């Protein structure tokens, strides 16, 4: 399969553009953090970070110009991270701090003591 | 040390050798995603459980130094990419120059980290027996805190203790204020454990990266890398960019948790 | 025997300790994993002797905790996980795909040294106080309260993890980039598919156990609070992180064995394997689905019903690809020309015992049943059926199958068959009673039990002594055969893989000329060079690089 060394050489102009975008993103994320967006603060921060990461992967790491196999490897890595984070958080978010209804209907334990 | 561009015995062609090295580095980076991922998971669970303590901890980090470090590291990714470009276009003299720039920027990053860590040590923010989230608000001159910053911090901590005390009261503690203060300290310590764990592991990776860069500079100065052969530069570049990406996430998650008090 | 081969190509200890030849590295691993097998076996012996009588007279309860922990740690991390991949995989995979070596031979050697360093730390832990936390290292016992040598042990397992990661990385890259012309993905032997799937797990799962144990170790050393409720930490978080790896780890332990069986069955049924595509796909399927079932180890930790049902369902799902394999192997046997050589005995034993182990896993996946069976001997029996009845039989089957290739000599066939039968009998006598014990309520990891359970425990120990004999016999006759066994020739079985076209033992570089593959795997008809009939013309080679 025609590989990376058939080589698409990314031009310095693109690198400079990505650099600018990353720096802008950094300033943006700091400024966004100073505004109270409630729950959206974390969403904004992660969104900006994800865009920055994507730019680094696509251009600095030549992800855009890499063979399909490499792209699959990258996607697989993130997919698996998502599995770990997603399913664990799913467990945490469905655990209830309050006792369940059946427990609430349980009589006080003293009444359960049989002689 | 092998001569660069030489075909290793197990390969049929140089093409195959290059493909193999590249795929190997990408697979390795995937393992690193999962490795750091465990820490990010731990962070998520704990931040979700203790948002106040995490906010307080985050505000004790120096935003300017953190921002500065982020800029430095992004710039180093740029210079690293440029050194790969230089090799690919056979600008042999430029290769070591950009690599040196990358190393210098990386060292600046590490230097700033040392400054930050020392600050944490002075402010009793290293997890352990002497950890005390209230140290700075109680000894403002030792921490260089004054004026509005000092008031903000005191207010934050007071609110934090109250929130923890409420929680303690709900759970039937006899002395909620005391329990609340201890709980805030414990949860803030969790934050700092993660801070040191995550930035420490990241810094370790940077140090290894610096070592790799030194090796590359040494080879590049001999004119070893050009359009025909630049695999090591390419692959070290991939590693370096990965380390940059980790920081791209660490910065907002650690430094920008609750900056909207200002 | 060929004049020159990988064993005599160079001499001296340095040529072995600094080798980059995948075959020599495989031998180095063979010696190391066998050593750790003995270490784990020693602890197993002590456990079974202790459990002969209720009342726990052989060792104290604290020591008993150390025995089962060290048995688990030694067996899982230092025997089962590396065994087939690092010994058989290392030896055979490059030859099977027509390559001269793995993609990264030096990293292969590094993997072995990392394994040794990790092993040294763990042995140090065993020698300086032992380990009593269970191989599962649950916090806060492991991170705070245990007085045993936890820290060196977690350091050792952490280090050993990198050995696994590098092996997995090596295999993945090798299969992608080192195949000979004509060796397309769908012509790969299923042993290679199995190891590719295993390597996916190595690469994606092992880093997580690494960071988890690192965190637990740091917590222990510096009194951090991640898993300590007193500091607001969460023991459940440890369990999630731990099982995210450790469940897929069990697939690391079984997939390679399944790969071995997929080689053995067609060879000794003299038939192409039934459903090649499905077996290949099911290997990947097991690797992938295996990653989303981990919380079935945590059904009793206060999970919500939603979470539990989801994981229970997914656990049922992961049984499907395994079942696909069992059906395909069985279908391969149908109308085959069956030979009961030793590898086949292990292969058939595997199919039966793995089926029992797998089905009992489904019992445990049922939420209601798990409440009663969790932490009982039922679980112990379930996983030993898979790990011993499955993985170890696969390992021994593979060792016997490739022994002629590795050493150039045949082992004594009749003695080997007897040993296989002894092992099979001993194994079942050891572990079947444990299903009953668990069902009756005997908890695992307890040093004592009520007197009414003694008969079954005695049966189990008796079985263990027979099982031990089943293990010792091969060690003796295999060693004997290296000097006195009959010369094997290139293809004693005969089997169809590329490795059987090379000398026994092979040259260091495996092939004097790069082979060109123009036949399908398990093709018993078109291979005259293997001494198999051929009247039908070969199929053309598809273009290389269809990756």
Find the structural class of chain C using helix and strand composition.
mainly alpha
Low-confidence stretches of chain A: 1-5
CATH class annotation of chain C: Mainly Alpha
Can you tell me the CATH architecture of chain C? Up-down Bundle
| Mean pLDDT rating of chain A | 83
Strand content of chain C: under 5%
Q: What is the fourth-level CATH superfamily of chain C? A: Cytochrome c oxidase-like, subunit I domain
What would you call the shape of chain A? flat
Total helix count of chain C?
Answer: 15
Total helix count of chain A?
4
Which class do the helix and strand fractions of chain A yield? Answer: mainly alpha
Characterize the structure shown.
The complex is a heterotrimer of chains A (115), B (262) and C (547). With 115 residues, chain A is mostly helical. In chain A, 65% of the residues lie in helices and 0% in strands. Chain A has helices at residues 12-34, 40-60, 68-94, 101-104. In chain A, α1 packs antiparallel against α2 (40-60). The termini of chain A are far apart. In chain B, α2 runs antiparallel to α7 (147-170). The N and C termini of chain B lie far apart (56 Å). Chain B has one domain (22-255): Four Helix Bundle (Hemerythrin (Met), subunit A) (Up-down Bundle). Chain B is an all-alpha fold. With 547 residues, chain C is mainly α. Chain C is built from 15 helices and no strands. At the A-B interface, α1, α2 and α3 of A face α1, α3 and α9 of B.
